[in-house]
Amino acid sequence: MNARLLPYVLILPVTLFLCLFFLYPFVLVAAQAFGGSDGLSLDNFRDVVSYWKFPISLKNTMLLAALVVPVQLALALLMATMVNRMKKGRDLVLYIWTIPLGISDLAAGIIWLAIFEQSGFLNSMMTGLGLAEGPVNFLSYQNPGLVFLAIALAEIWRATAIMLVILVAGIGLIPKEYYEAAEVFGASPWQRFLRVTLPMLRPSLQTALILRVVLAFEVFAVVAALGGTLLPVLMGEIYAYQFDLQNGGAAAAMALIVLGISIVFTLIILRVLRVPKGATI
Q1: What pLDDT is recorded for position 233?
Q2: Domain range enclosing 117
Q3: Disulfide-capable partner of 106 in 10, 77, 164, 221 (CB 3.0 to 4.6 Å)?
Q4: Sign of torsion, CA 187 189 191 197?
């Protein structure tokens, strides 16, 4: 085989896979979103944006992402640093911390529902300690803040491991000579973290943040399990349009709006965490 053709032959299966399972469905969704009785139309987008639930679901989704992603980033950085400094038990600790990766979104929501519901662990503990006279309904329309907090906690517990795995790998690639040189010049652990770890970890941070931000805008199952319709989010509205209202055009328009938001934030992250040319880590 010609050596010039070999790279194209190797990427052909992946290219076919992406065309079949991403590009083709995307074209279908776009056609459905922009479709109308008279050809191309923006009616589906107008209907979606003018619906009273749209600004509420957009605000809730943004607030969840704004709360969850920074907390997860801080936790993942702390945990990754701790794991890479461990000499014994490193693999066991990393395995325990990444257990939530094997749990589906809905299962994670049900686990936290068992904690916050009236007959759940939290109520049982509070009653046993005498902190409450009877069961408290945390997840009700009367406590929207607690519903939001419960969903945020469930998301932080469930998805922090995604960023952790990426950052552990990134820190592991940083040459130890940089840390040794910084220590020789009297840099404190915090200074080494700021001046060595964070700059060298920029490509991994970029990947972790893009992945997590995109997934944050797609939150659905955890919200459905803990909040139901009490906390509308964008993906929940897509589900409602498609299956409850049987309006595929509006659902497709909402999906493209979510895609557009994800692309905007991806570009922002790429800009802010721009990797210098020649960087290999």
Answers
A1: 93
A2: 42-272
A3: 221
A4: positive
| pLDDT of amino acid 276 | 64
Encoded tokens for 94 = 């990393």
Report which of 140, 136, 157, 173 is spatially closest to residue 68, judged by C-alpha positions. Answer: 157
* CA dihedral sign of residues 224, 226, 231, 235: negative
Sign of the alpha-carbon dihedral angle for 62, 67, 73, 79: negative
Question: Which pLDDT value is given to residue 278?
Answer: 54
pLDDT digits (tens, 9 = 90+) for 167-186: 998 988 888 888 888 888 88
Would you tell me how many other CB atoms lie within 10 Å of the CB of residue 156? 16
Asked if residue 50 belongs to a domain, the reply is: yes
User: What's the number of domains the chain is made of?
Assistant: 1
Contact 134, 141 (CB under 8 A): no
* DSSP 8-state assignment for residue 120: S
What b-and-e string marks burial along 175-195, b requiring 16 or more CB atoms within 10 Å of the CB?
eeeebeebeeeebeeeebbee
Q: Does a structural domain hold residue 90?
A: yes
| Residue 30 lies inside a defined structural domain of this protein | no
Cβ of 40: how many Cβ atoms within 10 Å? 8
CATH of residue 263: 1.10.3720.10
33 domain residue, yes or no: no
Instruction: Please give the sequence-ordered ranges of beta strands (E in DSSP) within 13-75, or none if there are none.
Output: 35-36, 39-40
| Residue labelled with tokens 């945990």 | 79
Q: Residue 47 is encoded by which pair of tokens?
A: 């209907």
> Is-contact 137 150, C-beta < 8 A?
no
Give me the DSSP letters along 51-95.
STHHHHHHHHHHHHHHHHHHHHHHHHHHHHHHHHH-SSSHHHHHH
